[in-house]
Automatic annotation (TrEMBL):
<dbReference type="GO" id="GO:0016829">
    <property type="term" value="F:lyase activity"/>
</dbReference>
<dbReference type="InterPro" id="IPR000887">
    <property type="entry name" value="Aldlse_KDPG_KHG"/>
</dbReference>
<comment type="pathway">
    <text>Carbohydrate acid metabolism.</text>
</comment>
<protein>
    <submittedName>
        <fullName>2-dehydro-3-deoxyphosphogluconate aldolase</fullName>
    </submittedName>
</protein>
<dbReference type="Pfam" id="PF01081">
    <property type="entry name" value="Aldolase"/>
</dbReference>
<keyword id="KW-0119">Carbohydrate metabolism</keyword>
<keyword id="KW-0456">Lyase</keyword>
<dbReference type="InterPro" id="IPR013785">
    <property type="entry name" value="Aldolase_TIM"/>
</dbReference>
<comment type="subunit">
    <text>Homotrimer.</text>
</comment>
<comment type="similarity">
    <text>Belongs to the KHG/KDPG aldolase family.</text>
</comment>
Length: 211
């Protein structure tokens, strides 16, 4: 899946599944479940053991159906390793202009983490595709809505605290997308091989996001 197709997918589905701490043996079953549930966009965080190998495997099997990126990219070295492993896009927890510019040089979309208005603007000017407001669970939907007032020209993603009950609110205020981790990629259910749980949860999130 090329850059244009992937970004169109994010703009359509608006949900990125954040994969952290999943064992390698379960990664393909998880990917199948997410696609079946209507969430074909996922980021594998680099602090997950075996993350680079998982990205390679996912691209080989699901690359035409899924948009697969790397998360928790904290420096240029991480960015290089992730892109070399086949990550289609990068997500960072912080605002690092050097990493953002590196991604732009490689032609990869990047969603850097930012908290303050200053960081949001810095990330955007450095070349962010959209800016991830983090930590979203602590800041809350009201904070993101306030940021969007003077900075409505900058696409923003909400990460942290998004669930079935409030996802429609994040869509309503105009979020470019949302990142959802543990409440969708539930490690207990995955370890038990209960991929239908993930599929059904993904489907409900997609349904609620369109209400």
């Amino acid at each position: 899946m090329n850059r244009e197709q992937g970004l169109q997918l994010i703009e359509k589905v608006k949900i990125v599944a954040i994969v952290r701490g999943v064992e390698e043996q379960h990664i393909e079953g998880l990917a199948d479940a997410l696609v079946s549930g209507g969430v074909p966009v996922m980021e594998v965080t680099l602090n997950t053991p075996g993350a680079l190998g998982m990205i390679e495997r996912l691209q080989a099997r699901f690359g035409e159906r899924m948009y697969i990126g790397a998360g928790t990219v904290v420096d240029v070295d991480d960015a290089q390793k992730a892109l070399d492993a086949g990550a289609s896009y990068l997500v960072t927890p912080n605002t690092d202009e050097q990493v953002i510019r590196y991604a732009a040089e490689r032609g990869a979309p990047i969603f850097p983490g930012a908290m303050t208005p200053t960081e949001v603007v810095k990330a955007w000017k450095a070349g962010a595709t959209a800016v991830k407001i983090f930590p979203g669970a602590s800041l809350g939907i009201g904070y993101i809505k306030e940021l969007m007032g003077p900075l409505n020209h900058i696409p923003m993603m909400a990460v942290g605290g998004v669930n079935e009950d409030n996802i429609a609110e994040f869509m309503k205020i105009g979020c470019y997308g949302v990142g959802i981790g543990g409440s969708l990629v539930n490690l207990k259910e995955i370890a038990a091989g209960n991929f239908d749980w993930v599929r059904d949860k993904a489907a409900r999130l997609v349904e609620r996001s369109r209400e």
